[in-house]
Amino acid sequence: MKRPLAVIGITYLITAAAAACFSAPVLFGAGAVLLLAGLLSLAARHPQRRAAFAVLVTAALALLATGAELRFRVQPLRDLAGQTARIEGRVCAISGGRSIEIELEGGLTIAVSSRETLDVELGDRFSAVASLSRYDEGASTGYARSKAVLTPLRAFVAGDYTAVPCEPGSLRGMMGDLNRRMDATLHRLLPNESGDLLSAMLLGRKQLVPQESRDDFSAAGISHLLAISGLHLAVLAAFFGRACHALRIPTRLSALLTAVAVFGYMGLVGFPVSVCRAGGMVLLALLAQSLSRRADPITSLAAAGLILCAGSPLVASDVSFQLSFLATLGILLGANRLAGLAAGWVRQRRFPRLWGAAANALAVTVSATLFTLPVVVARFGRAALYAPLTNLMVSPLVPLALVCGLVAILLGMLPAVGVIASPFALAAGLSVGLIDSVAAAVASLPFAELPAGAGFVSLWMAGAALMVAMACVRPSRKKSAACAALCAITLMTGILSYQLAMRGATSLTVIATGRSTAAVVAVKDGHAAVLGAINSKSDVYEVEQALSRRMVDQIDLFALSPASGNRNGAVSDLLSLYPVDLAVVSAEDAEDERMLAALDRAGAAVLWADLDAQLWGGDRVSIDGNTICSDFSGIKSFILDGDCDILKVNKRMGGCAVAVAASGAELSGLQCDLLVTRGDPLGGMPAGAVIRLDDARPRVELLCRAGRMAVREEGGGLW
């Protein structure tokens, strides 16, 4: 068997990543079956029996190890959901001013949020009494479900907390202090948004990047630049290696110094999983160089993955690990082959070196994109259409920004030569500014970000995979060009047919929010109305997913039902993502500072009261007491809470086609064709069909056109 370590390592990683989606009993049973099959394979007379034995036993061990981790480490934490307890751990990630992650003993983490700003730094020892809930409660996306493996719990801190910095003499403390000093030096040299972006790219401080820039980077397909990974380490390792070569340092000593620099940089950014994966591979390559041996990159990649998963196989389920691993694997397997297809054409151009560099860069980008696309679509529910083009455009700018930024910081920290840092800071700032401008320009293009829920994306991916497989069989330039053209035609046909099918139709997505309430997202031709109760960050995320799946440009009406408790400013994040023409909020919401700041950007904002608003194409929305009445494409719908007056509603609007009722709502006398509810309303169920929403089915979609309605279940068709 060629490359036995690579085969065993990749088998283990893929199996462990897939195993995290199943329960422990299923994994124990499947692991036992594969282990038995592996033992039986030794009795076969096939020449590849040893390879089959190694693969089967490796997969069995991955299943059994993952099952044990889920049963004995993850499940006990999930059992704490619904309780109030003291949490304690190291701060390992800072998502924002009010959101962090703390690492527990053994590598598992807890997502912590608070009503107030959390004054913490990476590496601090955090302790607080918090209310706990499962991270995957109500989760409907692959990202949330996969993250819930390593982050089983959410914790909300309502009171005081303590954050103790690392000991000054410890390695973690010194690295954290150095990270803060470098960030302060960088912002002294670049006191603007470019400094925030460069700090995220170089020092891992993503919390400083504005949400608008994050969205642009994501839509353009270059969000990986904001998460330190293999690209950053490869650039910095190459920089240190060339610097040692310029100083005429011997090869072995150069490899040793570069390894020390790479390990120090890994500690500087806090040893995140993706950095450890990339760093492990770089360190193995440097070790081979110091021993005057040629390293096999695929074997080094597999070995680095196995080393990372040695402590816990659950690391393989981490999204950043998967993206980093697959991107590197794609570059190793496909970049040279794709570049080779264009070699003949490049030699016939006037500037072969320039065209060759462009072809190599494009081959690397396309290879990484193709290998990571399935994970991106499955985990994030979207695909960046122009990602290869964007990566090609910014590829020369990224090394310039990283190297010049690092040199500027190091020189700026030295008092004697600090003035020399300004030119390097200027070059880094210009590079980052250009990257940001390219991301914003690409994100504004039509169909920059395709929602996977649109249906045609999955079909296009399947067709593209088939055509790529066909092109790999006896590859030729003509066959590759034909397959690429067919793939592009399939994609454009899907986009156009989707647009034609949805033109003029209204999509009503009913979302179960909280434990007893519901919200409705109505979308028609890029315009949206968000109606009902939105009480938490998970609710906001569900609404964002509904809007992104329908490629919404703006929100015409945002009517937020009065809440029984504090929303903790969660809705303000949603208002900052889309332009809002009219916002209707309660007096309690209007007193929240973050909500007020978000409402300032709306076209108009009014307090909750009786209201009659006309939307696109003559559709109407009325607010009557605590009830929202709407008419979309000839389909009447009511959103009813627990204090609704059915007699008053029936007298004013009569019956309806769809009623969305909160748990505990009084429905005596209600006339409707379809009831969507979470829980049991009072007064009995009305005549007609009933759809119950719960954690397993948190939403349902209704398609309305010209007075006709169809219901589409999650993952199913129409009925």
Automatic annotation (TrEMBL):
Pfam families: Competence
Keywords: Cell membrane, Membrane, Transmembrane, Transmembrane helix
Subcellular location: Cell membrane
Superkingdom, natural source: Bacteria
InterPro entries on file: ComEC_N, Competence_DNA_uptake
GO cellular component, one term: plasma membrane
Membrane-spanning segments: 12-39, 51-70, 217-241, 253-286, 323-346, 358-377, 397-417, 424-448, 454-473, 480-501
UniProt membrane topology term: Multi-pass membrane protein
Ranges where the ComEC/Rec2-related protein domain occurs: 201-471
Protein name: ComEC/Rec2 family competence protein
